[in-house]
Amino acid sequence: MSRRNGRGRTRGIRALSGTIDAAVLRTAITMNEAGASELRYEGLHITGALDLGRCRLDVPLALIDCVFDDPVDLTRLVALDVDLSDSTMPALHADRLTLDGELRLFRARVGDGSDTPQPLLQPTDSEGRRSPRRLQEGTVTGAVQLADARIGGNLVLDQLSLAHVGAWSLLAPRLVVEGSVHARELRSTGALYLRDGRVTYAVNLHAAEVGGIDATGLVCSGGWYADWGFRSTGQILLRAAEVGAIVTFHDSVLAGPGGSLLLSRLRAPRLRVDLREAPSGDVVLRDATVDVLVDSAETWPTPGRLHLEGFSYKRLETAGPVEVGARIGWLTRDIHAGSGTFEQLAKSYDAIGDQRAARTVRHAGERHLRRQDRISGRVWGALQDVLFGYGYAPRRALAWLLSLVAAGSLWFAHHHPHSVSGTSGRVWDPVLYSLDLLVPVASLGYRGAWDPVGVDKAVALFLTVSGWVLATAVIAGARRVLGRN
Questions:
Q1: Mean of pLDDT values over 142-152
Q2: Average pLDDT in the chain
Q3: What is 132-170 written as a DSSP string?
Q4: pLDDT, average across residues 39-57
Q5: How many Å apart are CA 374 and CA 379, to the nearest integer?
Q6: CA-to-CA distance for 38 and 15, rounded, in angstroms?
Q7: Contact (Cβ atoms closer than 8 angstroms) between residue 211 and residue 191
């Protein structure tokens, strides 16, 4: 039955119904003998494999609520729009598909029906060692295949169900979407492969459940929204991705066995990793660059699971206040944290004018690094820490100096050393004598005017050595601080 508008032009055609052969449906679609402005079919049961590969359609195609017994082939199809909403099929092969408008799989069900989870895990070799992930295209298949496809509008995958026995449920390397990717409440037993894709606006994965995502090298001018109940049992890879607005995993769950975030070399203005709960796997931010990082202390990764080397950010935000000591603890969850990691946090405090917190972070960084030195370095570092906090607590050095002067003055007030014969007469002053012993770079004339013996000599020697150690530590710390600045 066909429908016509006021001008007598056919708008859509649904002449077929019930169970039909795929070859009959292909002929009806490609011939369009009625000249319909839209080819729309609903509730069909198609037997055989529908092959529209390399065809060219000048009108939109809609196959709504249809059941396909065999995979649907849209490889190299050129069309305006394709709508497969509410339909069921074993697989969709649409590599190099070219559409001016949308591809819709709203509430569709694609796959063999297997409900066995296939989480994306770190690949290992035969001996259990980590190995690079190299997907050999042509040797793997997915329930939905969109390799090198180009979609001029939106890719609509909302509430799509991908129940597939393979590891990859969506296989779409180098996919180009001129609009947005809408995948809200998508359900997938396997992982989504979006490596080197291009999305003009946004990727929306609100409340989706997947076995992992590999979007390495993705370029998205808008935002990446895997939030509000998003759940993954495998790895999320956004390595070397470039996102123009925000990358958010707010209120998401990274569950076992492999739920983790691998965001190395990511570029984005804003990154949110304030998850619903602590991730089961790693959070890797190596060499990523963001303007603002939003996280939550309650869902930080466990020690050893956080990787921050080379991570660059300008400002940190949290829902609740996080003390500088707790934030330092966040850094040390990266067991390989180096001086650059601490300096980056200190710079973020400098940027907001909190100089005290910045000094505290740099002090903690020195302590952390000295623990990795040899025994001699650790001893010298501990001494510098006690004396003046590696240069970040200069008042501590003054306190030590005054304390030693007081102790020496108290001792020599009751133990008067013998004056050296031939010296000009000086009035004995235990304070000036102790101070002269402690300050190695200048002489007040008291040091050589009296000659202590016995225990007094030992005390004088202790004050002299303490003065040299204090001065050497202060100079070393000052050089370190000034050199860093």
A1: 97
A2: 87
A3: -----BTTB-EEEE-TT-EESS-EE-TT-EEE-SSSEEE
A4: 97
A5: 9
A6: 12
A7: yes
- Mean pLDDT over 340-356 rounds to 93
Question: Between the CA of residue 249 and those of 94, 226, 261, 271, 454, what are the distances in Å?
Answer: 29, 5, 10, 8, 72
- For residue 19, CA distances in Å to 67, 108, 131 come to 9, 19, 49
Rounded CA separation 430/408 (Å): 7
What's the pTM value of the predicted model, to 2 decimals? 0.81
- In order of 64, 81, 105, 203, the CA distances from 58 in angstroms are 19, 9, 20, 28
Distance (Å) of CA 38 to CA 11, 29, 57 = 6, 10, 10
The two tokens of residue 35 are 């000249």
CA distances from 57 to 31, 48, 81, 134, 314 (A): 9, 21, 9, 36, 50
- Asked if 179 contacts 154 with a C-beta cutoff of 8 angstroms, the reply is yes
Q: How far is CA 355 from CA 343, 359, 360, 479, in A?
A: 13, 6, 9, 19
**What's the pLDDT at 368?**
76
d(CA 181, CA 256): 26
Instruction: Tell me if 47 sits within 8 A of 67, measured CB to CB.
Output: no
